[in-house]
Design a protein that fits this description.
CATH architecture of chain C: 2-Layer Sandwich
Strand content of chain C: 15-25%
CATH superfamily of chain C: Dinitrogenase iron-molybdenum cofactor biosynthesis domain
Number of domains of chain C: 1
CATH class of chain C: Alpha Beta
Order of helices and strands of chain C: EEEHHEHEHE
Structural class of chain B: alpha/beta
Distance between the termini of chain C: 19 Å
Radius of gyration of chain C: 12 Å
Largest sheet of chain C: 6 strands, mixed
Structural class of chain C: alpha/beta
Shape of chain C: globular
Distance between the termini of chain B: 9 Å
Strand order of the largest sheet of chain C: 3-2-1-4-5-6
CATH topology of chain C: Nucleotidyltransferase, domain 5
Chains: A alpha/beta, B alpha/beta, C alpha/beta
Order of helices and strands of chain B: EHEEHEEHEEHEHEHEHEHH
Radius of gyration of chain B: 22 Å
Strand order of the largest sheet of chain B: 3-6-7-2-8-1-9-10-11
Oligomer: heterotrimer
Chain lengths: 293, 287, 112
């Protein structure tokens, strides 16, 4: 089984739009895993049927049972996050401030504080309108993406692929360089870095590259909106050469992505122009890169 | 007066708005622009000036004292963030996972885990031609953005008079860093774009602001002629829309070169002026 | 000599788990005693953050000479493993445990 992960450091590079187009091109041949759970937008283009829904529990928060509390105040003294207040002669824990360290529960002499696992969101197993399978998730307010959630989504995608006898998993990876993106990359065979020729885009590309390095994964790069700033595009290409990273494609700045998205379509569905052809070529190039092992 | 500029996801033009608005408002009164997107602070690419202060920022994390440790293993059990590993003859610490809760340190029976300062990032205070600019940048490999955001807000609070207008360029999303940056603001401006992605992420941001009980409004970026999905949603929810910027390739080009937009494009400036008027009126209410 | 595998199951024909930190199981093969020991790692795999170093610590306790896995431990887990003498071989993520062992014996896996 093969895992292809599409990632980008910063938001707005067109990563998710590309994943949707690639998923459409491969129809029923792969399972899509949306691990960009902070901005889980892929479903807006894939229109999955949310066939199976399950709660996702992650992280604990402190909960105080007033009946057991003898108001000693040790919990408040222990808490470094100012999450415990004395309000109307009762100690109260503010869930938004609680980081779940559990210190208060440990020092409470009456055992009135317990650590309760929180519902962070839901995850789903779906069939998309292209007939393919998709595993995705949604986070609640103030809930954070985590290595655990990404790992769960990828694991379910793997199981699904196994059951359906599919060889490939396409992962919409998490942004940033923290735990979620590490889980996105763990176990992957090929990482495609999507970037754009802006100062911040190039900067992010270098950061993500350093992370991917640790996982001994093959890397390819797509420069989206390459004509926005030809100078930076040249700098990126020189850098890719030096780093021996294959340039999978350069895609032009185009309103097609936005216009397609506005209609809930993928770019190749919406237009049959040169951009669509470039996207098709990109996907072929990615598959070829994946087979070159 | 503190105005936070935030968005449900990255790449909506939050930094473009923050930098342009700050420069524009600075033409008529004192403004401090604060970049709280500490994982990826980009405002500084657009604001240039003289560095008045640069400070290394720290958080407190435990340090292992081998001579005192009796290898009871309690610290590993205590740590809810998996930042401590007991290997039997040595303790390994993973400071980037540590939330500085002090539990291991204070509960260690051998006092073998004293809390020590550890560098998490750097704060810079820059005086530009017209405005003051403060940015903090988390070091690579650091994962705890919230302490640095709070320290940056404290720095700004201690340095400037209460009356000075603060514009806070906030981290994207709806998780803890975004909440830390927006919760102390007097008003939050949510930047979005009129696409299904934009609307989806805006709804999450709106729910977050409602949970925080923060007053907020919306700015629509990269709008087209025909599509009104954000405007319709805001109307239905009675959310004020302050301005709408047209989708314009020239904006993206100027951005890629690290340039401000409003002095080059009159249409952009016109919309910016609407937001500026709103901000000024808020100051009136506050005063 | 002990060889550790990151696995999805507990037998020789189980699939390898390509992940290190969030692997479901470890299998430790004691070559001299021809004994296969299993360790269930699923509780650690369910941690929100920092699974890598915790898993590495568990592995550390078994003192294996060789670790065979998918594409290698991430940075934090690698730091723990560096404290031991274990040699890490990658590229077995797509095999069964037996296939991975044979691939190791015939020198088809990459040492990092």
């Amino acid at each position: 089984m093969q895992e292809i992960v599409i990632i980008s450091g910063k938001g707005g590079t067109g990563k998710t739009s590309l994943v949707a187009a690639f998923a459409q091109l491969s129809k029923t041949e792969l399972v899509v895993a949306d691990c960009d759970v902070d901005a889980a937008d892929l479903y807006l283009l894939m229109h999955p049927d949310f066939r199976l829904e399950q709660a996702f529990l992650s992280g604990e928060k402190a909960q105080l049972d007033q009946n057991g509390c003898d108001q000693c105040g040790l919990c408040q003294a222990a808490c470094r996050f100012e999450a415990i207040e004395l309000r109307a002669e009762q100690y109260t824990i503010n869930a938004l401030d609680c980081e779940g360290c559990g210190y208060c529960a440990r020092v409470c002499p009456t055992g009135a504080i317990s650590m309760v696992e929180q519902k962070a969101g839901d995850w789903y197993r779906s069939t998309t309108r292209f007939g393919g399978a998709m595993v995705h998730a949604r986070l609640g307010i103030a809930a954070e993406n985590s290595g655990k959630l990404v790992s769960l989504v990828k694991n379910e995608a793997r199981k699904l692929a196994q059951r359906k006898g599919l060889e490939t998993i396409l992962v919409d990876g998490s942004p940033g360089i923290g735990c979620p993106v590490i889980s996105s990359l763990s176990g992957a065979d090929l990482a495609i870095l999507v970037t754009e020729p802006t100062i911040s885009g190039f900067h992010d590309l270098k950061r993500v590259r350093r992370l991917v390095e640790k996982f001994h994964i093959r890397i390819g790069c797509i420069i989206n909106k390459f004509d926005l700033n030809p100078e930076i595009t040249d700098q990126i290409q020189d850098w890719l050469d030096r780093e021996s990273i294959s340039l999978v494609a350069r895609l032009p700045y185009s309103d097609v992505f936005t216009e397609a998205m506005t209609r809930g379509q993928t770019a190749i569905e919406y237009s049959n122009g040169t951009l669509s052809q470039s996207i098709r070529n990109s996907w072929d190039a990615i598959l070829q890169l994946n087979n070159e092992r | 007066m503190k105005i936070a500029i935030a968005s449900g996801k990255g790449g909506t033009g939050k930094t473009t708005l923050a930098t342009n608005l700050a420069s524009y408002l600075a033409e008529t009164g004192p403004v401090i622009l604060v970049d709280l997107d500490v994982e990826e602070p980009n405002s500084g690419l657009f604001i240039h000036g003289r560095e008045l202060a640069a400070e290394t920022r720290y958080s407190l994390v435990p340090e292992w004292d081998a001579d005192r440790c009796s290898f009871c293993g309690l610290c590993q059990t205590i740590c809810n963030f998996n930042a401590i590993v007991d290997l039997g003859d040595r303790i390994m610490l993973f400071p980037e996972l540590c939330h500085s809760c002090h539990a291991c340190s204070e509960l260690c029976p051998d006092e073998a885990l004293p809390m020590k300062s550890r560098r998490i990032g750097r704060l810079r205070y820059i005086q530009a031609e017209r405005l003051d600019f403060v940015e903090s940048r988390l070091d690579i490999g650091q994962e705890q953005a919230v302490p640095l955001i709070n320290q940056t807000l404290d720095f700004v609070g201690g340095r400037f008079r209460n009356g000075t207008l603060q514009l806070l360029d906030s981290p994207p999303g709806t998780a803890c860093p975004a909440i830390a940056a927006t919760r102390t603001a007097d008003h939050v401006i949510l930047v979005t774009e009129p696409t299904p992605f934009g609307l989806h992420d805006l709804k999450l941001a709106v729910a977050t602001m409602q949970a925080l009980d923060q007053p907020f409004s919306v700015v629509i970026n990269r709008g087209g002629q025909t599509d009104n999905m954000i405007a319709d949603y805001c109307k239905q929810q009675a959310i004020p829309v302050l301005a709408g910027f047209a989708n314009d390739r020239r904006v993206a080009e100027l951005y890629s070169r690290g340039r401000l937009i409003y002095d080059q494009l009159p249409e952009f400036k016109q919309q910016l002026a609407k937001i500026a008027t709103f901000v000024t009126s808020q100051e009136g209410i506050k005063a | 000599m002990n060889i550790a595998f990151t696995t999805k199951g507990t037998t020789w024909d189980a699939a390898m788990d390509p992940r290190f930190g969030r692997t479901d199981f470890f299998l430790i093969y004691d070559i001299d005693g021809d004994d296969l020991i299993e360790f269930d790692n699923r509780a650690i795999a369910a941690e929100a953050h920092g699974a890598g170093p915790q898993t590495a610590q568990k592995l550390f306790e078994f003192q294996p000479d060789i670790l065979i896995t998918g594409n290698g431990p991430g940075g934090n887990a690698a730091r723990v493993l560096e404290q031991s003498a274990v040699k890490v071989f990658i590229g077995a993520g797509d095999m069964t445990v037996l296939e991975a062992y044979q691939a190791y014996q015939t020198g088809q896996l990459t040492e990092i």
